[in-house]
């Protein structure tokens, strides 16, 4: 018997496609709009959410039988706030400039709908192992969308990836810029993130007609 049963494996694979937290559940849209102008910020935010949701789901699952229902939301907020503080301190210690760029957005992980939603919908009713898989799966599904959006926004908006020029030098007009190409400054604005997410949703539903809602 493998480490993961088919049922457990779906906890990780489903959020990538048929149950993606951003494109299907429409959760966590705010961070997708706010921090995806740079690919590096998108990757760091994704890793941060993977840590917070994976560990948080396990902690809530372990405590699920001793948490009074009347204060469960408060307990969940304390758990996620503690994990976010750890992430923030690690970033300040090892990536200070990036921590300043992300700034308040790291703190807003505390109110990320995906995290509180998984605590409520899954961790409170399942064991630590399945809760861990659910947390990692949903965080990865969230992260994939952030990275895709960040990739296209930085590439088309700045002509760079992870801060390195990939289309040439826009000043010296080398590479693609020699053909008359110009960076699309609109890609760096938050509304363009929503448009990119919309395109991803369109592609996803075009490939899987079952996701199209009938009215």
Describe this protein's structure.
The protein has helices spanning 6-13, 29-34, 39-63, 72-94, 96-102, 104-107, 113-121, 128-158, 190-207; strands at 160-161, 164-165. The longest helix has 31 residues, at 128-158. The chain is mainly α and 215 residues long. It has a two-stranded antiparallel ribbon. The protein has nine helices and two strands. It catalyses: a ubiquinone + n Na(+)(in) + NADH + H(+) = a ubiquinol + n Na(+)(out) + NAD(+). It is found in: Cell membrane; Endomembrane system.
Specify the biggest β-sheet. Answer: 2 strands, antiparallel
What number is the mean pLDDT?
A: 86
The helix content, as a percent range, equals 55-70%
Shape: globular
Unreliable stretches (pLDDT < 50, length at least 5) are: none
End-to-end gap = 43 Å
- What integer value in Å does the Rg equal? 19 Å
Structural class: mainly alpha
Lateral strand order in the biggest sheet: 1-2
Beta-strand level of the residues, as a percent range? under 5%
| Number of distinct beta strands | 2
Instruction: Write the element-wise H/E pattern from the N-terminal end onward.
Output: HHHHHHHHEEH
Q: How many helices does DSSP assign? A: 9
């Amino acid at each position: 018997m493998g480490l993961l049963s088919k049922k457990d494996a779906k906890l990780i694979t489903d959020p990538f496609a048929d149950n993606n937290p951003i494109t299907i559940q429409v959760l966590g849209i705010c961070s997708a709009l706010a921090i995806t102008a740079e690919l590096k910020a998108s990757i760091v935010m994704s890793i941060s959410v993977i840590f917070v949701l994976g560990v948080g789901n396990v902690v809530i699952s372990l405590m699920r039988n001793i948490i009074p229902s009347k204060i469960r939301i408060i307990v969940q907020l304390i758990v996620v706030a503690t994990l976010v503080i750890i992430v923030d301190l690690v970033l300040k210690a090892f990536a200070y400039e990036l921590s300043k760029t992300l700034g308040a957005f790291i703190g807003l992980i505390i109110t990320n709908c995906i995290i509180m939603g998984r605590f409520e919908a899954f961790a409170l009713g399942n064991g630590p192992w399945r809760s861990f898989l659910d947390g990692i799966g949903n965080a990865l599904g969230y992260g994939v969308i952030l990275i895709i959006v960040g990739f296209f926004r930085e590439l088309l908006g700045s002509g760079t990836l992870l801060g390195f020029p990939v289309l040439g030098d826009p000043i010296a007009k080398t590479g693609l810029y020699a053909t008359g190409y110009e960076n699309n400054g609109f890609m760096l604005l938050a509304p363009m993130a929503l448009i990119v997410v919309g395109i991803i949703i369109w592609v996803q539903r075009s490939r899987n007609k079952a996701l199209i809602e009938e009215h």
